[in-house]
Amino acid sequence: MQSPVSTLPESQGAPPAPRPAVVEQRSLVKLKGRKVLIIDDDRINIRILASILQNEGFVITEGDSGERALELYEQIKPDLVLLDVVLPGIDGFATCREIRARYGDNAAPVIFITAKTESDDIVEGLASGGVDYLPKPFRRKESLARIRTHLQNKILNEQQKALVDQLKAANQAKNKLLGMAAHDLRNPLASIRGLAEFLCDGTVGQLTPDQHDLANTIFETSQSMLTLLNELLDVATIEAGELKVHKEPHNLSELVTKAVYLNNINAARKNTKIIFSPPDEAPIVRLDPAKIRQVMDNLLSNAVKYSPPGSTVNVRISGYHPAFKVAVQDQGPGIPENERHQLFKDFMTLSSKPTGGEKATGLGLAICRKIVEAHRGAITATNLPQGGCEFSIMLPA
Amino acid sequence: MKYEGKILLVDDEAHVRKFIGLILKQLGATTLFEAGNGRDAVEVFKRENPNLVLLDVNMPIQDGIATLREIRQLSTDCVVVMLTSLANRQTVEEALSLGADNYIRKDTPKDEILASLRQTIADCFSVD
Hints:
The complex is a heterodimer of chains A (397) and B (128). Chain A is 46% helix and 16% strand. Chain A has 397 residues and is α/β, with parallel strands linked by helices. Chain A folds into three domains: 35-138, Response regulator (Rossmann fold), CATH 3.40.50.2300; 165-239; 248-396, Heat Shock Protein 90 (2-Layer Sandwich), CATH 3.30.565. A five-stranded parallel beta sheet of chain A has the order 2-1-3-4-5, with helices on both faces. In chain A, strands 7-9-10-12-11 form a five-stranded mixed beta sheet. A two-stranded antiparallel sheet of chain A has the order 6-8. Residues 1-15 and 20-24 of chain A have low confidence and may be disordered. Chain B has five helices and five strands, in the order βαβαβαβαβα. In chain B, strands 2-1-3-4-5 form a five-stranded parallel beta sheet, sandwiched between helices. The mean pLDDT of chain B is 84. Classes of the chains: A alpha/beta (397), B alpha/beta (128). At the A-B interface, helix 5 of A face helix 1 of B.
């Protein structure tokens, strides 16, 4: 049953001049010293494989049965397993399944050693959790290449997992810092805004027009900084997984009416009107009123922001089953097709600019999306054939 | 409109005291006491026995919740409005369960704070 092996030195038989451009693949990770478990009831096979691998600096452990394989695996925690299919006791496939069952995704890759090249055998091996197979007789270069590839994959996978964990921790730390900074900045800013407002409204004495202009600039600037801070805080809260929606049955129409009423005050400064006629039947939806109100405020203020002065913004509630839809139609420039994918992402401001010098933080719609999704709903934006854009939220009834 | 009652304003941040103080003045408050932490607040409370206390939550030395407990032991009919920096449900709920009458978020726009305080004063006292 001895298998012939090609262990010829590489130079032998090769033409003296130009060597083929097969350069040995440089390893991305250090493979020397990695532990390989070889299981075969044929001592000669083991000896051949061991000699190939030891030359490369691998550390070899060997066994002759499936049961022994499981024992040795537990002892040495190999980086890779070479496993014969036909073994006394439990066979290679069963051994492989057991390794996968015990060690899950962290299990070392298993490569089957097989004399047969029947595809059934190969398929069964792969189905039992093996990653590859080494056909007997062994060819040194091919065997090494396969083993190296799978070891590298395994190690790179591990490194990637560790990196992802690190990044997660770093992101959490960032959100925490962001949250703390925003908290600590918010109170002083709120006071600055309030005190500037006192200066502006003449409570503490009349100002000259120039002084009034300065005080008003302080007021408006601190106002927009507060908005940004609040949105940053929202993002930090949401990313930390702390967005909690407290759903309760609520009259959606009433909520929208309130939001429209208040946003119309701002809209009036641009001579823009928001029109909403509530549906006859009150739509009762399970939602978090404060959060959905935040979404509506955002959609309405955006509609006003991006529509030219003197526009009309239309708001409609429709669809009763299985979801309610609130649609806000503006008369703005619409969403450029190539920027659509950025619309609901953090810090993404599009090329369209507010038409009245308003500020955009690029966070509002991202927050809206997260709130709506926390309600198991959806938010969409569609350009209208007559111009303008329709933003809709869908909320499950 | 004049409000003759005694008001105690407690916050560790001077800018907040200045801002809220101006709002109170606009509401016609004439007698305003200030404290920068909970312990001082209790001192002033014992001495002056105010009708209305505006009480910050996060403060050094003694926080607003502990201060609220002490105040409620001294007086049950004084009106206490908590000043919060976030709509922190838990803290607000705790304060309300301990006998606070209302709460105001400090980052609320001035006119809303004004309206809310005017309402509180009107609800709790007869004002000329």
